[in-house]
Amino acid sequence: MDRNEFVQPSVTTRIFEKSLLNKSDFERLIESADIEDAIRALQETKYKEEVSKLVKAQNYEEALDKMLVEFYKDMYIMTREDSVVDLLALKYYYHNVKVTLKEYILGEDLSYLYYELGNFPKDELKKSLDTGADVKYSDLVREAKEEYEKEKNPQDADILIDKKYFEKLREIAKKSKVELFEKYVRNLIDFSNISTVLRCKRQERTIDFLKKVLIEGGSIEISELESIFGLEVDENASVFRRTEFYKYLKLGIEEYKKTGTMSEFERQRDNYFMELVKDVKKVTYGPEVLFAYLYARETEIKNIRMVLISKLNSTAPSSIRERLREIYV
């Protein structure tokens, strides 16, 4: 990946960064009286154009999804190297592949579940399952369909799509030769695999099922994860302590053991990656600058979503603060 290709995009990205919400902005959202008051606060930020179109404050989900899609479209336009954006956007494309297959299996129109992102060929992909036409993602959706047909189990197809997603991420990161990207993908796989171990244990799954769903390519060997599967979950286990994200992992597992939910585990995962990309502030130009901004903006939208749903549920400000991810600025 030629770093010189990112000189101007990096300059533009640094300008975009100035519109990221800071702690004071989020504090105002958190302390707002209700969701309507929070929406009014957002009208004084970068998000004013979309939130001003809301007929009802309760329709915020639609507005946020549109903001996310437009944000990714802008980033694809700004850089000639799509793979930098793909590292974060691919999860939405592979989600769309799952929706396409689900529509085929159920015979229902699930258009409302799609992310209208990039050049995803939604209609052509649906038709390709019957026609055999060669369009983007058609090989993947057909392979997933074949996997489903074996046992008529939609989960089998989802597992295959998830594995292909991580394979694609590894391919992009390796080809880029950017240390940050390789570390991001490697550790994302680790978090995904640890989450899988925890969920499989709670659901009393078999070791054979675990072996089927674990993803290759993390810093923790698959064999190590399999070896701890039959043991009591211990956040201080050496296999976890050796990771570079142990501080975050420990907090996430401790809370999971108390509550049985993955929300804090996922928050700590996101906090780790935010700390990782914050180091990019020292980088003058390069693909890392765009990636860090992408991660920061997506996290910001995630936090806004959390605040608004909390306001709908009349959640106390102190509880909202505990649930938010770390921010970039």
TrEMBL record:
It comes from Peptoniphilus asaccharolyticus DSM 20463. The keyword Transport applies. One of its GO terms (molecular function) is proton-transporting ATPase activity, rotational mechanism. Gene3D superfamilies: ATP synthase (C/AC39) subunit, domain 3, V-type ATP synthase subunit C domain. It comes from the Bacteria. This is V/A-type H+-transporting ATPase subunit C. The lineage of its organism: Bacteria, Bacillati, Bacillota, Tissierellia, Tissierellales. Keywords: Ion transport, Transport. SUPFAM superfamilies: V-type ATP synthase subunit C (SSF103486). Belongs to the V-ATPase V0D/AC39 subunit family. InterPro entries: ATPase_csu/dsu_sf, ATPase_V0-cplx_csu/dsu, V-ATPase_V0D/AC39_subunit, V-type_ATPase_csu/dsu, V-type_ATPase_csu/dsu_dom_3. Pfam families: vATP-synt_AC39.
